[in-house]
Amino acid sequence: MLALAVLVTTALPATAATVGPSIDVSVMPGNEAENAVAVNPTNPLNVVAMSTLPDVPSGLFEGVSFDGGQTWTRSVIGTGGDLGEICCDEQLTFDPYGNLWMTYLLNTNGDILIALSTDGGLTLDKVAEIVPTKPTGSKAPSNAHPKRLRGSTKGVLGDQPSISAGPDGVWVSWTSFPSTVVEASGAAVSGLGLHGSFSAPEAVPTANGKGDFGDTVVGPDGQVMVTYQDQTNGQGGSRIYTAVDPDGLGGTGFGNPRFLARSRVGGFDYIAAQPDRSVDAEANLAFDRSGGLHDGRIYAIWTQEVKNESDDTDIMFQSSDDNGATWTPAVRLNDDATKNSQFNPAIAVDQATGFVGVGWYDARNDLGNGGPGDTDGVRNDDAQFWATFSTDGGATFASNFQVSQGASNAADTESGFDYGDYTHAAFQSNTFYPAWSDNSNSTGDNPDGTLHQLDLYTAKISVP
To answer: Can you give the residue ranges of every domain in the chain?
Structure first.
């Protein structure tokens, strides 16, 4: 039985952090959902944020800031040209040299695409296109996994790629459908714009031969960890595993899968706050590469449901000091006393300090009584964005605090995409930037008005 106790909050009160105002990054018509964000370690004022555009045939929204999010250069990328016709599933990471790496999927095939920017995100160029492994005799129909690819893809489909950069390389992992095998590929990086070729797809051993909805992270010694859940459909629950390549770009390869957690959240688990898109356990990883007291510690977060189909979902936290051979017991990060939903968590480590930040969508204030967290008189179907942080390696966390200024409702988006499959966060030099999709129009500049289409939001959270 997994522990469900709330972490004791003794390190810092939530008021120790300064939560800046909500910022509408996109300010454009239509829905922006399923978000990515990254901060440049060589220039912490350089913030890049992206969102999938579910209402258009192809393309991503991109916002680039060089003043810590006060002003943004906004554009739509990936409607053709060098990047191709982008579908979705974008993720971002900066490496220590200031290279911005992006992975994403196309409408036109099932390959895994990787792009690079050396100017802080202003321009991106495709540097790799990885063809997922095709098992003998397999063929995926165009609707093999409609939760991910929206195009008329034939053959093998790559799904939900994730990307991470470390001191000497960048790695991406993904799931190949219809076989649901997990694969990974890495490339050496030695400076700004200086990188090798991505390796051939490397198998990541999985329990029962399948896995999806994963995440990738690179450690301080170049080791690579991949996590995934074994159930890719249904609402009955899942098991979460990790696999480690201890020498990354060396010749060892990934070891056998290691059990991390048992979740009651399946692959397509429908909750009132995400009624069309559904949620998965959405396990996320973060390595401490700060060189500090907890250097080499790996953090994991994932979503638990207290009882199957109760919609009472929580954000769970664990850590490991031995590359995932053993983990601390799972503890609950959300400190509410309700039976409402928390979902789509994101975690980031500040490599300058070793601090840990976590954010998530949270329905705790939607009691259906017309209060500030309720938009429609229905309980548990509206969400805000909340967060917490730790300054002592995850031993204690600050009291949860609300980040978004308003409450949003996914059903009002009229897209069926809801908030998307995931969101992300970035943490650099004492500043935490979560990213979330929001139709509360709390900032008054959403072109679609209040409680219609979603815009991409962030906020600058300073942790002393």
So the answer is: 14-462
Chain center to CA of 322:
24
The mean-pLDDT minimum among 6-15, 138-147, 270-279, 434-443 falls in 138-147
Residue 280 CB burial class (10 angstroms; 0-12, 13-18, ≥19)? buried
Q: Is CATH 2.120.10.10 the classification given to domain 14-462?
A: yes
- Give the separation between CA 263 and CA 92, rounded to whole angstroms: 27
d(CA 376, CA 286) in angstroms, rounded, equals 36
Using pLDDT thresholds of 50, 70 and 90, give the confidence band for residue 3.
very low
240: pLDDT strictly greater than 70: yes
152-to-142, 146, 457 alpha-carbon distances in Å: 5, 10, 31
Supply the Cα-derived Rg of the chain in whole angstroms: 20
DSSP 30: S
Distance CA 341, CA 362 (A): 6
219 pLDDT higher than 70: yes
